[in-house]
Specification:
By secondary structure, the protein is α/β, with parallel strands linked by helices. It has 2 domains: 142 residues, NAD(P)-binding Rossmann-like Domain (Rossmann fold), CATH 3.40.50; 104 residues, Dihydrodipicolinate Reductase, domain 2, CATH 3.30.360. The protein is 35% helix and 25% strand. It is built from 7 helices and 12 strands. Helix 1 crosses helix 6, helix 2 runs parallel beside helix 3 and helix 4 runs parallel beside helix 5. The chain is elongated, with a radius of gyration of 20 Å. Bound molecules: nicotinamide-adenine-dinucleotide.
């Protein structure tokens, strides 16, 4: 498999380069606005419109601003795309949906296989543990600016899909003067030190608890997940996919 990497010189681009080399996946070309000519072991250009090489898949860890040129390259050359960047606007998400009519596109704000399996476990628990209260706690390093994390919201969505429309998120409980309601799912953010990322979904019942936890230990896991997604996507028909499709395909 030959791959084009978007954001090749960034933290995740470099992780993906290492993961690809270890897995024997070829890198046809890298794209990064910050490229200044230093050798990186494969050709790098500063914009998707400059890519001359062809490939089996494009994996992007750059920024939403790169999207129009990235999708043009992919659609014009019929190259499947794995979109890993976060922060797309509604307009950009519509653009992605349009491209997916012509080529296979997989987009996920969390490429970790473990987190996506956790989402499935949360669905199963929410479906079967009737009457249990659900609480989500996420922990991240002190530099993280947004809260709650996008992954905490993804886990909330997984539970909410099973519990139904009366469910609502409750962010912290500061100032509350009433008992917990059945429909609420508490979401809590802890910030400190160098924690890479931890997500815990607790199901609290009458005399028993089930607590599902995912701990990210480094960023390499996102690169591993992106490679898995790229391999899975390469022979799929046009359409919009997510990491959930990869997990469900593994379940058979
Ligand atoms: N889906 C996931 O699991 C996952 C995991 C980690 C990070 N991310 C996302 O991936 C993106 C990159 O994260 P990072 O930590 O590697 O960031 P980073 O800032 O270290 O790297 C981004 C790279 O993209 C380059 N870039 C920026 N704009 C570009 C453009 N228009 N065209 C080409 N290159 C461009 C930058 O020069 C930089 O080298 C972010 O959106 C981040 O939120 C997603």
């Amino acid at each position: 498999m030959q791959m084009i990497i978007g954001g090749a010189l960034g933290r995740m681009g470099r992780e993906l380069t290492l993961a690809a080399e270890a897995a024997g996946v070829g890198i046809a070309c890298g794209v990064d606005v910050a490229y200044t000519g230093q050798p990186v072991g494969y050709p790098v250009v500063t914009g998707f419109e400059q890519v001359k090489e062809t490939a089996d898949v494009i994996v992007d860890f750059s920024r939403p601003e790169a999207l129009p040129e990235l999708l043009k390259l992919a659609v014009d050359n019929k190259i499947p795309v794995v979109l890993c960047a976060t922060g797309y606007t509604d307009e950009e998400i519509a653009m992605i949906g349009e491209a997916a009519k012509h080529i296979p596109v997989l987009r996920s704000a969390n490429m970790s296989l473990g987190v996506n399996v956790l989402c499935e476990l949360v669905r199963m628990a929410a479906r079967t543990l009737e009457g249990f209260d659900i609480e989500i706690v996420e922990k991240h390093h002190r530099m993280k600016v947004d809260s709650p994390s996008g992954t905490a919201l993804m886990l909330y969505d997984a539970a909410q899909k099973e519990k139904g429309p009366e469910t609502e998120p409750l962010y912290g409980r500061y100032g509350r003067t009433q008992k917990r309601t059945d429909g609420e799912i508490g979401i809590h953010a802890v910030r400190g030190g160098t924690v890479t990322g931890e997500h815990e979904v607790g199901f609290y019942g009458n005399g028993e608890q089930v607590v599902l936890t995912h701990r990210a230990e480094n960023r390499a896991l996102f690169a591993q997940g992106a490679l898995k997604a790229a391999r899975w996507l390469a022979d799929k028909p046009a359409g919009l996919y997510s990491m959930r499709d990869v997990v469900l395909a593994m379940l058979g």
